[in-house]
Amino acid sequence: MEFSMIFIVSNIMLLLSSASAKTASPPSLSPTPAPAPAPDFVNLTDLLSVAGPFHTFLGYLESTKVIDTFQNQANNTEEGITIFVPKDNAFTSAKKSALSKLTSDQIKQVILFHALPHFYSLSDFKNLSETSSTPTFAGGDYTLNFSDISGTVQISSGWSKTKVSSAVHATDPVAIYQVDKVLLPEAIFGTNIPPAPAPAPTPDVAPAADSPTEHSADSKASSPSSTPDGSSSYKLISYGIWANLVLATFGVLVLF
Ligand SMILES: *[C@@H]1O[C@H](CO)[C@@H](O)[C@H](O)[C@H]1NC(C)=O
Ligand SMILES: *[C@@H]1O[C@H](CO)[C@@H](O)[C@H](O)[C@H]1NC(C)=O
Ligand SMILES: *[C@@H]1O[C@H](CO)[C@@H](O)[C@H](O)[C@H]1NC(C)=O
Ligand SMILES: *[C@@H]1O[C@H](CO)[C@@H](O)[C@H](O)[C@H]1NC(C)=O
After folding, report:
1. Which atom of ligand 4 is nearest to the CA of 132?
2. I need a labelling partner for 122 at 20 to 30 A (CA). Which of 85, 86, 174, 185 fits?
């Protein structure tokens, strides 16, 4: 008898605690003090020299003085900045020869092409994909197209198609995202895209994504498998409560 009482009491406690954990957590957020405003100054040089390795890109930023343009945007504007940073090994790929033939003005344009004069969080790119061509710091025809494929941000410059592979920093006003390739602007290299170094040894893109048909992209986007994770975890919580209810009821039955 005593054992059943303990069983019931403990089950009711469990039930109450899981129910209160669920209902009490949102209000408990409000009394906590608002997070202190993020420090205004983000040292881009410092960030890029410790993350990465991004030494090649940082070297170009410094030799072209574009670092000052970007740092000024980060320091002094409400708009903020979004920078796409290729890793060092992106520069050692076949495309590097493309850069070596450029004038210093063109190199500067290529580096400016790697940033947008606005802070974008990763989820903001869903909106951009609808508006297509997005202006970069290089201005004019130097635009990038974004699309969001199953939560991965894809970037197209005409010459380069790549994706955001990680977020280095993403706190307003400064976003820095690592990309797999150097972004080569159509405005410099033209629309006459050369025979790609086709037997690319790194299969960094899933075969399905290579398919040029819009049809496959559509079917992918409308696939029901892309349901948000939130609903399943909610179901788990509900299941836990139900399990406790069943156990408690069982305890009551044993008691009588
Ligand atoms: C930014 O960081 C770099 C590298 O750590 C350092 O040399 C430079 O002095 C810093 N700039 C400012 C303004 O703090
Ligand atoms: C950015 O702000 C830092 C700290 O206030 C300052 O040292 C640096 O010179 C500024 N850089 C630019 C380009 O405005
Ligand atoms: C993106 O679109 C959503 C819904 O259309 C909107 O609520 C949100 O404010 C937009 N974000 C930006 C950065 O424009
Ligand atoms: C970007 O999108 C625009 C409008 O859909 C299109 O005309 C242009 O060719 C695209 N550019 C690239 C580089 O994909």
Report:
1. 2
2. 185
